[in-house]
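Hey,
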Amino acid sequence: MKKITLLLAACFSTMIGFAQGSESFDNAALTGSYGDGSFVGDDGFTWTYVHSRDQGDFAIDGNGIMLRRPSSASSLSATIEGGIGNFSVDTRKAFTGNNQRNLELVINGVVVEQFTPAFGEGTDDTVFAFEVNDINVEGEFTLELRLFGTGDQQVILDNIEWTGFDPCADLMAPEVETTQSITEEQGATFMWYTDEELTTPADASTALTEGEYTFYVTQTVGECTSEAAVVNLTVTLSLSDFDTTQLSVYPNPATNNLT
């Protein structure tokens, strides 16, 4: 009887996040003069702004906030609960100055990503979204949006959105190695399917005849399940009297060996 073994190296973390938040600036009540202040936002968090003003004639979607220049420390910040996964904010150029607008996202004092939207010269009402994914910081965090570089860089911010910390964000699909066997990593459970939609589990009682097969395998750690890895399998039977009813794949799901 011919034995077929498959080896998967597992990469995962133990992390699911459900919380999310947004800020529309409907409660901001800023004025047309640059200044420092604070307001309680849509989700009850206090936002603090430095050398900033209202959107003036450059609104994106109703109320917004205008940052002015890095040398005056123009910024917007808040301390938020629930962690952060992904982030986005809409931006628009204010006034006609052609200095490059430079915005950066800072989480807990660390610059996560910088953004240099390609606004046109003079008046430009184009809205660019500053999006940052897979930040994945757990618990309470401080979020800050601030300008960097030099010169006046009037830019409007509106429609801030973020998702909560995602404990499953780093759980990767199993890695298929050429040695074609299977190993268990830190208690991962592997589930095998015969379709890309992951609706039909591989039947351990079904014998494999000679030919080409494609399986899709996920790994589960705690409450987190990864995307599927693709396993392409070729069954070659060299003996003319090979008993195909004795060839099968088992067990499913598997935690140690898939035979």
